[in-house]
Amino acid sequence: MCGKRSAWSLLVFLVLLGAGSAVALDRSPAGPAVDVPYRLTIPKHLMVRARINGKGPFNFILDTGAPALFFTEAVAKKAGVKQGTNGWGVCDSFELEGGLLVAGAKARIDTPFQLEGMNGMGLAGAEIHGLIGYNILAQYRITIDLDSDRMVWRKLEWEPKAPFGLTAAGGGSQGGLEMVGGMMKGLGGILGRKATPTMAGRGFAGVFFTPGKDAVLAGVFSGTPADKAGLRAGDRITHLGDTAVTSQQNLLEGMALQQAGKSLLLKVQRDGVSREVTLLLEGGL
Question: What is the pLDDT of residues 54-72, one digit of tens each?
C-alpha cells in the first residue's frame, strides 16, 4: 500500500512539474532589466526595500511560499492603503528600491505567522514589514547573484491567477499556523531577544558596484545621499572614514555597519584626483 501511495505521489508530482514547465516556456520578458538591491538576513532570507504610495522605505522578505504580497496593518495605515472587508488592499504604487514599479499591486493586509516569528526572534537583524509572495514574484523573471548585492528583475508577458485560500475576512486565514508565530515570539523571549527589537537602521548611501571591479562605483541611485553628494559611476572609494578600503567586500562590510542619520566621510579618487565627500545616510535595511 505504501509503495502504491509513493508511486501515485510521484506521478502527481511529475504531472504538475510538466504542466508548470509548459507554462514557463510560454513566458518571455516584456520589460527592461531593473537592478534591485538586496541583502541577506541572518538566516539567509533575501530582503529588499520598497516604498508604498511614496511612503517608506519598508523592509520585505522575498517569500516564494507566500501566495501574495503581505504587509501589516501599521504599514497599511502609514502608506494610506485602505483595507477592504475581505482583508485585501490595493496599492496605488509599490516601488522596489532600484526603480522597479508595480502599479496597482494587490496586498493582503495581515501579519502572517512567518513575519511575527521572524520579528519576534529578531532573526532578520532589522524589522520586517512584509512579505513579497507569488502574486508579485510570478510576474517577473528574477536573476539572483549571491556574490553581488543586487538582483535583476524583468517583467514577463504573463499575469498570474489571483491567489486562493485567503478570502476570509479577519483571522483564521492561515489554517491555525498563526500559533507558530506566537510560539516563536515566546521562544525569542526565552533567548533574551525582544519581540519588537530595538535597533538602529542601517545607513543607506545609494551606491552600487560591478562584481570584481573592486571599490569602483558602477552607479548611484537618483535622489540618494550618494547622488546628492555628487558621486558618480567610475569613482573609486579609497577610504571609509580613516580606514583604507582594500577590496569591494571590505568596503561593503564597512558601509553595512554605518547607522542611518549619521554622516559618512569618504575619500574618493576621480580622474587621478583625490577628494573627500561627506554623505548624510538615510534609513536603510
Answer: 998 999 999 888 888 999 8
